[in-house]
Design goal:
Immunoglobulin-like; alpha+beta
Length: 191
């Protein structure tokens, strides 16, 4: 009788374990379906600075959704930006005072104390300029906004007066990760 009782207890325990596993799997699949992809966008606003010869201000703007019902909280954002020109040797990243800089300026519009910026590098090579930048939101709930907010600003100085430059994101190294599980890249590189 005792062995039969142990057998029934084992069967009940096994049934509960299988049931919990199936419930967790169902919750994971529901979470996967609720995490929207391609709602985060980044845009760049460029303007020539008056009074500064051949210097342009570049504002990097981002949002994590397109409307209040299509917005996703993010945990982090990373990007690689390439800047190339007709004469890439004449391009350089500078600060507000037009002095050469090896970092880009972090926006004061972001909530204080909620962000960390472990990567902020500017490198120059024969092809042009490469900017690597990463931002991590350290809050429990993440960051979300359906309005564009300034993430960073940098200045490009071009020694050649009539020379333009192209700015592109590396789609393989640019991400915006959702705070939900499973973590999803929500950056829509087509916008």
């Amino acid at each position: 009788m005792k062995s039969l009782r142990r057998y029934y207890i084992f069967i009940i325990f096994l049934g509960v374990l299988v049931g919990l596993t199936l419930v967790r799997r169902d919750q994971y699949m529901r979470s996967l379906a609720q995490t929207p992809a391609d709602v985060g966008t980044v845009k760049v606003l460029t303007e020539k600075l008056e009074g500064k010869e051949n210097v342009s201000r570049i504002n990097v703007m981002f949002r994590t959704g397109t409307a209040q019902d299509k917005v996703e909280a993010i945990s982090s954002l990373a990007m690689r930006i390439y800047i190339k020109g007709q004469d890439s040797a004449s391009l350089q990243i500078v600060d507000k005072g037009a002095n050469e800089s090896d970092k880009i300026e972090i926006s004061s519009e972001l909530p204080v104390g909620e962000w960390r910026f472990p990567v902020n590098f500017v490198t120059k090579n024969e092809d042009g300029i490469v900017i690597d930048f990463a931002a991590i939101n350290i809050t429990k709930d993440g960051y979300l906004s359906s309005e564009y907010r300034k993430l960073a600003t940098f200045y490009i100085k071009n020694d050649k007066e009539e020379s333009d430059f192209d700015l592109t994101f590396d789609n393989e190294l640019s991400f915006m990760y959702s705070k939900r599980r499973p973590t999803t890249n929500i950056w829509d590189a087509t916008k």
